[in-house]
Amino acid sequence: MKEILFISCLVSVSIFGYSQQTLQHVVATSGNYFANEDVSLSFTLGEAVIIASTTDNLIITQGFQQPEYQVTNYTDESLYVQFNIKIYPNPFANSISVDFQNSPVNNYTLKVFDLTGKMVLLENLRSDTINSIDFTPFSSGQYLFIISSETSGLLGIHVVQKII
Q1: Which of 38, 73, 108 finishes a domain?
Q2: How many domains in the chain?
Q3: CA angle 81, 82, 85 (to 5 degrees)
Q4: DSSP string, 101-164
Q5: Residue 67, domain extent
Q6: CB neighbours of 117 closer than 8 A, spacing ≥ 6?
């Protein structure tokens, strides 16, 4: 009986000991690898880091990626320009005006969607003039104005109401 108990304990310890092994696989959402004749560099984003060995100028890890990185952020606040987009009148009958004040960009794109999500108008707008948009062919209701520029991306989403 002692032999059976000893053997079953030995088997249990070996099974539990084997199941506690950790395989170091890299599971990450993003990363890349670069190499030249002197050095190779690989990195990933979103994983744990375990440092194995360190010298003055070198860190070697055990299957995981290097833990040290430097992010440099520079912001020049003088580049920020306060500008406004005025859309008037709202509600409107036949036409609506879009005016860009203190705009850093000259060309904008206006996409107009109805409430079903269908794009009903695509218009190029300029910031150096007041843009008048003719809505006489459209029925009354609410419309979604999405204004963007090629350099700045999405600038504004506005809901407007056509009456009559």
Answers
A1: 73
A2: 2
A3: 120
A4: ES-S-SEEEEEEEETTS-EEEEEEEETTS-EEEE-TTSPSEEEEEEEEETTTEEEEEEEEEE--
A5: 23-73
A6: none
Q: Supply the pLDDT for residue 66.
A: 46
Q: Looking at the domain assignment, is residue 122 inside a domain?
A: yes
Q: How many helices (H) and strands (E) does the chain have?
A: 1, 11
| Cα gap 85→79, rounded to integer Å | 18
Structural domain includes residue 105:
yes
Say whether both 34 and 105 belong to one domain. Answer: no
Residue 93 pLDDT greater than 60, yes or no:
yes
> If we measure between CA atoms, which residue out of 111, 122, 106 comes closest to residue 145?
111
Q: Is the pLDDT of residue 114 over 70?
A: yes
Nearest CA to 150 out of 108, 121, 119 is that of 108
Pairwise CA distance, residues 92 & 98, whole Å: 12
